[in-house]
Amino acid sequence: MNLKRRQFLFLSSVSAISTGLGWMLTRQNIQSADFAESDTAIAANPPKKGMLLRFVSVADTGTGAKGQYAVAGAMNLYHKQNPYNLVVLAGDNIYNNGEIEKIAQVFERPYGLLLKRGVKFQACLGNHDIRTANGEPQVQYPGFNMKGRYYTFSRGNVQFFALDTNANADWKNQLVWLEKELSLSKSPWKVVFGHHPIYSSGAYGSNLEFIKTFTPLFQKYGVQVYINGHEHHYERTRSINGTTYLTCGAGAGNRPVGKNEWTEYSTSNLSFAAYEVYADRIELSGIGINNRVFDQGIIQLKSA
């Protein structure tokens, strides 16, 4: 399975645009917009019977600025009240050009409390990350726990598949690898993550080439969740042929977001996503910097 050349041109233009617009907007509003009165505060809840795994996801974090610290603070509180030991870090880990010498400023200090408590971050590469040495220093950085530019790992009955969705990725071999790994997987839960969105109501919109490339694979092999960043907002889709698409790119800065017919919830608020995995479902929450749950959804193990 090969991606067409026009996708490479499209993604290259996206990367160029994000050099200016993306960084400027990443540094803008860090305030939390008004939430509905029905929002619930983060509370310490004993794990429900049968919970197998709790993890969180966040992306577009690596600014070292106030927005990142605000989201990190909410992640700290959530961890204190509802412990987890895994963070899916979906790219743009180091702004603006992936300079590994900034790692203390944009990763080790903002997430110091989580790292001290043994929380493991599993990262993938974003378009900003590949601007220095094609992202290789980040692949080699122990704190990102990357086994390569694309890789897989498991936590209990959940198997995760990390992708390199950049324009210069080794698409030919990566797609062969992904289909092979999905076909061999015995895990009932399959979670794929990469930096760029497949479905999005944000500034860049949905990627038609990605829809053509990935959605048949996800449907064929029963991928229930795709997690991404790049768009600086939160958006959860309804189940599309069995897969829920979750954008969690408001980890340090935010941009406006709209809605589509397949959107279940979207907001530009600074936030992260939390997941509780059970044998038959994943309970998903969107959590803002005011430490309130603004979105809740259920991902079924098998859905139409």
Note down, in words, how this protein is organized.
The protein is of the alpha/beta class and 304 residues long. It has a single domain (5-18, 51-300), classed as Purple Acid Phosphatase, chain A, domain 2 (4-Layer Sandwich). 27% of the residues lie in helices and 24% in strands. The chain has helices at 5-26, 66-81, 103-108, 112-116, 136-140, 171-184, 208-221, and strands spanning 40-41, 53-58, 86-89, 120-123, 151-155, 158-162, 189-193, 225-228, 234-237, 244-248, 263-267, 271-277, 281-288, 292-300. The radius of gyration is 17 Å and the shape is globular.
What is the CA-based Rg, rounded?
17 Å
User: What general form does the structure show?
Assistant: globular
* CATH class term: Alpha Beta
- What structural class results from the helix and strand content? alpha/beta
Q: Which homologous superfamily in CATH is the superfamily?
A: Metallo-dependent phosphatases
Sequence stretches where pLDDT stays below 50 over 5 or more residues: 2-38
H/E element sequence? HEEHEHHEHEEHEHEEEEEEE
Largest sheet: 7 strands, mixed
* Strand residue percentage: 15-25%
Query: How far from one another are the termini?
Result: 25 Å
The fold-level CATH name is Purple Acid Phosphatase, chain A, domain 2
Helix content: 25-40%
Quaternary state reads single chain
Neighbour order of strands in the largest sheet = 1-14-13-12-2-3-4
Total strands: 14
CATH architectural grouping: 4-Layer Sandwich
Number of domains: 1
Arithmetic mean of pLDDT? 89
Organism: Mojavia pulchra JT2-VF2
Keywords: Hydrolase, Signal
Pfam family, one: Metallophos
Protein name: Metallophosphoesterase
